[in-house]
TrEMBL record:
The lineage of its organism: Bacteria, Pseudomonadati, Pseudomonadota, Gammaproteobacteria, Oceanospirillales. This is uroporphyrinogen-III C-methyltransferase. Its EC number is 2.1.1.107. Residues 26-235 form the Tetrapyrrole methylase domain. The keyword Lyase does not apply. Belongs to the precorrin methyltransferase family. InterPro entries: 4pyrrol_Mease (IPR000878), 4pyrrol_Methylase_sf (IPR035996), 4pyrrole_Mease_sub1 (IPR014777), 4pyrrole_Mease_sub2 (IPR014776), CobA/CysG_C (IPR006366), Siro_Cobalamin_biosynth (IPR050161), Uropor_MeTrfase_CS (IPR003043). Pfam families: TP_methylase. Keywords: Methyltransferase, Porphyrin biosynthesis, S-adenosyl-L-methionine, Transferase.
Length: 286
């Protein structure tokens, strides 16, 4: 069989397969920072019709409870130094299920395009000619800050805000320290708990005042939310005792000083913590 005939046969086979299994659709959905009421209406509508769901570690049980009982659910979360499923396998699974005609949901904490690797998944789906949509979610920076009473760009404190990953790359924090250590801005570090000391030392070494306030928001926007406050020099006591557990969000800047008076959500829970307190290798149904 010559090359032209081979291409024709392959095209016919693919067309036959597509006829047998009309393509489904993949929805890359941001689940927000935790509170299920922060889901967008569009995201909620898609969840009600989900057939296959791949979800991350930061997606709350309350949001998973919204899924149809008959939906197939697969946990593909990633924790520090522990990736349940390689990203390439997640990408391929999305493609394969869509080719089976499934309504596939890729459910991510926060927003898919902000430190969520949604861009990589979208690239894989577009390359495979899979119908796909992206439904943004409230990212942790805005959601957690709002629930902690910390306006990220209050005009008396900050003229800009930066979103930064606190992950190590090749054993180092490869950040533009001089740019980050400028006054008049708010810094928001995702995944920064394990490297909190390195972050604070780096900022102080490049000129940011050691008295600059910081907040570690734990389990943000949920009933378990706690906000731990300190400064670059004096970290929250809970950090040293190991009392702070991920997921957390780190906010650094003058705006953190507003938390004490503007903490509307935690006012009813009494969960603000200062430094005076002393205190799967394979896809499986999940």
């Amino acid at each position: 069989m010559d090359t032209q005939q081979s291409h024709t046969v392959n095209a016919e086979a693919e067309a036959h397969e597509a006829h047998q299994h009309p393509l489904g659709r993949v929805s890359l959905i941001g689940a927000g920072p935790g509170d299920p009421d922060l889901l967008t209406l569009k995201a909620y509508k898609r969840l009600l019709k989900a057939e296959v769901v791949l979800y991350d570690r930061l997606v709350s049980d309350e949001i998973l409870a919204l899924l149809p009982a008959e939906s197939e659910r697969y946990y593909v979360g990633k924790a520090r130094s522990s990736h349940s499923v390689p990203q390439e396998e997640i990408n391929q699974s999305l493609v394969e299920w869509a080719k089976q005609g499934k309504q596939v949901i890729r459910l991510k904490g926060g927003d898919p395009f902000i430190f969520g690797r949604g861009g990589e998944e979208l690239e894989a789906l577009v390359a495979a000619h899979i119908p796909v949509e992206v439904i943004p979610g409230i990212t942790a920076a805005s959601g957690c800050a709002a629930y902690a009473g910390i306006p990220l760009t209050h005009r008396d404190h900050a003229q800009s805000v930066r979103f930064v990953t606190g992950h190590l790359q090749h054993g180092q924090l490869r950040l533009d320290w001089p740019a980050l250590a400028q006054s008049g801005q708010t810094l928001v570090f995702y995944m920064g708990l394990s490297n909190l000391s390195l972050i604070c030392d780096g900022l102080m070494a490049h000129g940011l005042s050691e008295s600059t306030p910081l907040a570690l928001i734990e389990q943000g926007t949920t009933q378990r939310q706690r906000t731990h406050v300190g400064s670059l020099k004096e970290l929250p006591e809970g950090f040293y005792s190991g009392d702070i557990k991920p997921p957390t969000l780190l906010i650094i800047g003058s705006v953190v000083s507003l938390h004490q008076t503007l903490s509307w959500f935690e006012a009813d829970h009494g969960t603000t913590m200062g430094f005076s307190d002393g205190k799967h290798a394979r896809l499986t149904n999940g």
